[in-house]
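User: Hey, quick favor. My workstation is busy. Could you predict this chain's structure for me?
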Amino acid sequence: MGLVVTGIVQTPDLAAVEAALGAAGLSSEHLQLVEPGEDSPPLTQGLAVSPNIGPIETGTGVPGLTSGTMPMTSRPIVGNDSLSDRLGDFEIPDDEIDNYLEALAAGRSIVAYFAKDDTIDRVESAFRAAGVAKVKRF
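Assistant: No problem, here it is.
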């Protein structure tokens, strides 16, 4: 069974993390980084805009002639679905996702490592040795 070790770093420079993993006999191949601003969709005047499909159209309006955009009333302003999905891929529980989104909003980065049962303790130790904050396993 695989586990994920996550943590928060001040900068996206992972040289110290990679060196600590190497010193622990681990490859950095399973290391992931989520940087501030990654996957941020544009928000325009309260409209929900997807980076892939544009404004959400409703009704039977004629494209270019009528505006059928849906007001952003049921979606959170912070983060987006793809970023939440990515953090969810790290097995971060839903009730902790906001903590990671806040770290990203504050300019910090999220680091994650997909470990095996026999390497999880070494990964956690390597993260701590490299100065990674809020090290957790999921």
